[in-house]
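Sat 14:20. Reprocessing the chain from the morning session after the first attempt stalled halfway. Input below, unchanged.
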Amino acid sequence: MVFQKYEGLYEMLYLSELLNLWFRQTFVHLLGELLLFLQLLMQAVAHIRILVSVCLILAGSAVNAQLLPNFGGQRAGLSTLGFLKNDMNSRSAGMSGAGVALDGDYLSVSSNPAALTAINEFGFGAAHLLLGAGIHQSLLSVQGKLKSEATLGLSMNSLNSGAMPYRTEFQPDGTGNYFYVGQHALGVNYAQKLSEQFNLGVTLKYIFEQMAEYRNHMLAFDVGFLYETDFRDMKFAVLVQNFGGNSAARGDYYAVDFNRDPEAALSRYTIPTVFKMGLSFKAWEQGNRHLLVAAELNNPNDNAENIRIGTEFAYRDLLQVQGGVKLSVKGQTLPTFGFRYKSRIGVHPIHFGYAMNPANFLGTQHLFTLQFTRNRSTR
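Finished this time. Tokens:
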């Protein structure tokens, strides 16, 4: 009996020692994981602070040193070449334009050139936007991977007004002649990974505009940064879009010379420079399905600041459905919608996309996209 009593006591002491050892090992492991997480978080914060500081300086120059001014529309209509602001990526457009922190594809030249680092094979993306009133806009982007792992490509963004009649004060119904407005931006795109998480992208644009007999040429550029993390695939991004000088058309044609000043000079206007800052992350993931949430703050030089919030439900890599809303965008209080479907031509992946952007008074804009990737491997 005494032996059994001491044997039971020994077993209790042994189990207590095992539990004590397990708790100590678990505590040390959790403490190590916590320290590693804090270290990674401090590195991410340091990079993001640098990114935001640089881009705020650039954006401040673009908006006359007004960083995040009051939420008013007093600057509306102060810039020209508005086609440069149109979102030509159906995935981003379906999420109400909250695309600055999305992973990249061939149409990321429209949302953030830094995301082009995600491209691994040569391919192209094409988009066509129906703006209404016979106005169309198209984008073609061709991108490829260099041996240095950088991405290099070309893009062409064009808007055409369709035929419009000449009207004068003496012939308000038209003179019988027609003219066109064409706006084009030829871009050279370059993106490079600076580290495992840090991506840089730059687009240099040559812009050409033609309105009847008037012409305009100028240069502008986009510079974007994208920071990737391992936590829920979270990404942070900042972008300065359409950074350049003032724009002025050149020409001296008058349909009617009555009461005209032949010496009058054409006015100069800024181009629509926009500072964007946003993030995206997977809010929910189960098996081959996930829900992505993205948010973006836009600070344009020609309108009030606004916020875009979007979501995307993805099933495998085959189908993504997007939705979103715009906050503080006058005349666009209705939600947006889009989808993207993946198929194949032989072994080459191909994506079809669509997005609709309903406006309160100007109808609904429709965007159609197509992306093709060359697959050098065989089944």
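The CA atoms of residues 270 and 310 lie 29 Å apart.
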